[in-house]
Amino acid sequence: MINGISINYYLLLSTVLFIIGAIGVMARRNSIIIFMCIELMLNAVNLLLVSFSTLHGDASGQVFVFFIMAVAAAEVAVGLAILSMIYRNVKSIDTDLLSNLKN
Amino acid sequence: MLGYTITQWLFGILSFLAIMFALMVVFSRNPVNSVLYLVMTFFCIAGHYLLMNAQFLAIVHIVVYAGAIMVLFLFVIMLMDLNQDSEPQKSAWIKIVAGIAGGLLLFVLVGTLKGTEQMNLTSYGSSQIGTVKNLGKVLFSEFLFPFEIASVLLLAAMVGAIMIGKKEIK
């Protein structure tokens, strides 16, 4: 199969997806949405790794994406457990209310 | 069709859909809707993987992200009973600052990438690197040690999640 797409378009697409995720982390207060935006940023980087792996004809990039997926799954499992504990104690997951360390 | 190949049409449509759904994840008021839009974004990214002949990663992406991680998110959101009314909103000022900061970052990155050389994805190498057979060979020869470490990491994450989630630690 011939994929005649230039690498530049993949660079632009990944950049835009990454920036959308970054804006979401900055602009939202719900911890779960912030978590999902982090997943979005991880996926933008994954997409770029796969496209460069295809460009160079080297399978190492795709193996790296595989490992990133495993680490992301571990991160989400622990993170959501922490969030549910926070919700049990504070009755909210609003990030602006979690300022105990500041005082 | 207008001088574009079918692959280029698919790339354009998938990119447009991925960006639209990603924007809707950020700007949707209801957390459940955000999760569903994120699942759609992941399907679009899986389509991109298929377009690049990375079949194994496309399937793993759908199974792991859309199948496991997003279901976990949905469960937690349902447990917490979050909906539109209880959704906290940042002040408009913070949102404007976040938009400006993100826009500046986009400006810098696009400015950096603007002058890169045009290279098509089939310039080098074969198109068979994304198959299960080839990836399995690489994974179990060159990357065998990281693969085993990843299993330890997943075990540690599982134990950690259970320990954190318990009512009280005796």
Short structural summary:
The complex is a heterodimer of chains A (103) and B (170). By secondary structure, chain A is mainly alpha-helical.
Could you explain how this protein is built, in words?
The complex is a heterodimer of chains A (about 100) and B (about 170). Chain A is mostly helical and about 100 residues long. Chain A has a domain at about 30-90. Chain A has helices spanning about 5-25, 30-55, 60-90. In chain A, α1 (about 5-25) packs antiparallel against α2 (about 30-55) and α2 runs antiparallel to α3. The radius of gyration of chain A is 17 Å and the shape is elongated. The model of chain B has no long low-confidence stretch (mean pLDDT about 85). Chain B has six helices and no strands. Chain B folds into two domains: about 1-85, Four Helix Bundle (Hemerythrin (Met), subunit A), CATH 1.20.120.1200; about 125-170. Chain B has helices at about 5-25, 30-50, 55-80, 90-115, 130-140, 145-165. Chain B is mostly helical and about 170 residues long. In chain B, about 25% of the residues are buried. At the A-B interface, α1, α2 and α3 of A face α1, α2, α3, α4 and α5 of B.
